Amino acid sequence: MEGSLKETPYEKRIQRLMTGEDGDQYGFYINITDNIVREVKNPEKACWEDETGRPGGVTHWLQKQIYPYILDNEEEKKFRRTFLKEELLRIFQTGQRHIQLGYRFRKGKYITCYTVNIEMFEHPVDHTVECCAIWRNDTIPYINRVMTHMLLRDKYRMIAVLDIQENTVFVRKHTFENTEIPCDSPLEYEGFIRELSEKCIQEKSREWFQTSASLNTMEENLQVAGTYSFTVYNADRGAERYTYQWLDKEYREVLIAVEDRTVEMEKDPLTDYLNRDGFVRKTENILKKNADRYQFAIIYFNIRKFSGLNDVYGYENGDRIIRSYMDRIQNSTLRPLVLGRVAADRFQALVDAKNLEPAALGKLLQYQVKIGEEQVEIYGRCGIYYIPKQCKLDVSQMCDLAKMAKNKISNQYVQPYAIYQEDMRTEYEQKNLALLNLEKALEQEEFVVCYQPVVEGKTGQIASAEALVRWNSSGEEPMIPSVFVPELEDSGYITKLDTYIDQTVRRFQEERYHKGKRMIPVAVNLSRMDLMNSRLMERICTELQETKVPKQYFRYEIIESAYTIISKEGEEFLKRLRKEGVQIFLDDFGTGISTFETVRDYTFDALKMDMGFVKKIGKDPKRDAIVISIIDMAHRMGMKVVAEGIENKQQSEFLCNHGCDYLQGYYYYKPMSAEEFSKLLDK
């Protein structure tokens, strides 16, 4: 210090600050008021005086000794801003006496992390504001903090540092069981990756893993984003994420972290239950450990007409339905050992067979959900595959068989489940083969149009008919629509089939008309895809204008979910049909997606009440009251009512007594061929 400073408590304080403690590197003492460096403690003996030998300026000294070596631009800006004379005096005047800065410092080959502690005080004699700034080397504590943070975070299976320049990796910690990778020893990086690939990665993923972890791929991605990661499945089918991030970009040092992401990768984000991969892995583990001890079953669920629920009530309410459905399964008497969501409204469960009572599934699969002020009926269905002892199939194949059984359900209102039988596999394979040859099937007339008569409620006489379709793809027993229509809808081929049915019905009607035979209206179903197909709509309108058959003998039925998303073009199409005298029926009213807005806002000639209501007639007074209300509402709005799915006298009498206009079902007539239908009409 200068000679003016005596051995006073003040001087001793300055000496203590400048001397520092263990780990300090250097410091300086400055007069803030005069903005000069008074003394420097510096192992490198950096000059702190100007060319005349007098104390140098603070900014000059910092620009020469500190600023060029700070790595981060933001850290340098903060440092410069803090050491401005005006800033230090402002801070001092607020009553603050201590400031701490941190930055990374590079001088020579090494990068060092420093903490700078600044303590300000007032000189006891001349009352100038002064301070001591002490540099502490914080590199080791900094690295330990970073490493500790990485090690404690989530479930890290490995932490390592890669020196790209030297092609060397140092593993700090790992928990890999199938390999003996040494820690804290230099390893050649490519060899290290090969070792991981051979011992720790699934065989089918090894080539991709080696490509993703290569130096070129990794560094290229790091240069772009500063961090790089990829996920791979290990030999135990667990998911691991490899993350690379710069530890020191200039010297090309990279921190590598491998974390266990199995839980996250196998979780369905919407429901928090397992996704497909998680379901398969967990089920495999249970079956492997209990191969000969228990009998298990896999159940494949889905919600009937879920896309219609989304269309009517919106995707947010659709998501609520999915969550409630899975919670209902989880908390049921099935007590699933594993439950997962495959996609959309499709779910899979592994259950102990002793907890599975198929006859009790009806109550589980059908329930009500409140959406706004409405109670919406949810109809589920499921397929069951009982896993035999010593089964050679993998879990995915078992799930396919359960799904196959679900697709076999013919009448979900009577029995909303089906148990897999071996003959289903043959039918399934034949059906898929036929789907691949749809064009040929249409050309060879493998699709058979059938007619189911509809009777008048008051008289019991045939009043109209509905055109249905069967597919005889093998020349044997025809397939019913529930087997192949979903696949045609998914594949986009349903419009071709609907076109074929419509043209077949038109030819049937024209033939009877030209022969002067008895005529009744015949209804054809249109899917929502049909109402988006401008060519099909234009063709129907053109052929209606060209035919000599009176238009009242043609009808079209549209399910409500198709009408709720109808385009402007589709809406105009239906208006044109009604203007020509063609009647439009709203099909499947009351299936759980119906709203009064549909019948309020659009004009229909009749409502077709869903068979789910008919099945419950006489079993529940509340449901009987709903049926009566639907009939009354339709009549008040100027619409007729058709009830379908009638199977017994009790249902028929109830509907007739309450004014239902038309009745359809096996109690009266089953679907029949065109020849049988013609003979029936000719009687």
Give an overview in words.
With 683 residues, the protein is of the alpha+beta class. Helix 6 runs antiparallel to helix 7. The protein starts with 8 loop residues before the first helix and ends with a helix. The radius of gyration is 40 Å and the shape is elongated. The chain has 26 helices and 25 strands. Strand 20, helix 19 and strand 21 form a beta-alpha-beta unit.
Cα separation of the termini: 127 Å
Spatial extent as radius of gyration = 40 Å
Widest sheet: strand ordering: 18-19-20-21-22-23-24-25
Q: How much helix, percentage-wise, in residues?
A: 25-40%
- Give the mean pLDDT: 84
In short:
With 683 residues, the chain is an alpha+beta fold. The protein contains 26 helices and 25 strands. The strands form 4 sheets. Strands 18-19-20-21-22-23-24-25 form an 8-stranded mixed beta barrel, surrounded by 4 helices. Strands 8-7-6-11-10-9 form a 6-stranded antiparallel beta sheet.
Question: What key phrases describe this protein's structure?
Answer:
683 residues, alpha+beta, 8-stranded mixed β-barrel, 6-stranded antiparallel sheet, 26 helices, 25 strands, elongated, disordered N terminus
Helices and strands in order, then pairings?
Blueprint: H1 9-19, E1 24-31, E2 36-41, H2 58-65, H3 73-82, H4 85-93, E3 98-107, E4 110-122, E5 129-137, H5 139-152, E6 156-163, E7 168-174, E8 186-188, H6 189-200, H7 206-212, H8 215-225, E9 227-233, E10 239-248, E11 253-260, H9 262-265, H10 276-289, E12 296-303, H11 306-313, H12 315-330, E13 338-343, E14 346-352, H13 361-365, E15 366-371, E16 374-387, H14 395-407, E17 417-419, H15 422-435, H16 438-443, E18 447-456, E19 462-471, H17 481-491, H18 494-514, E20 522-526, H19 534-546, E21 554-559, H20 560-564, H21 568-579, E22 583-589, H22 596-601, E23 606-609, H23 611-615, H24 621-636, E24 640-644, H25 649-657, E25 662-664, H26 674-682
Parallel strand pairs: 16-17, 19-20, 20-21, 21-22, 22-23, 23-24, 24-25
Antiparallel strand pairs: 1-2, 1-5, 3-4, 4-5, 6-7, 6-11, 7-8, 9-10, 10-11, 12-14, 12-16, 13-14, 15-16, 18-19, 18-25
Helix pairs in contact: 6-7, 11-12, 19-21
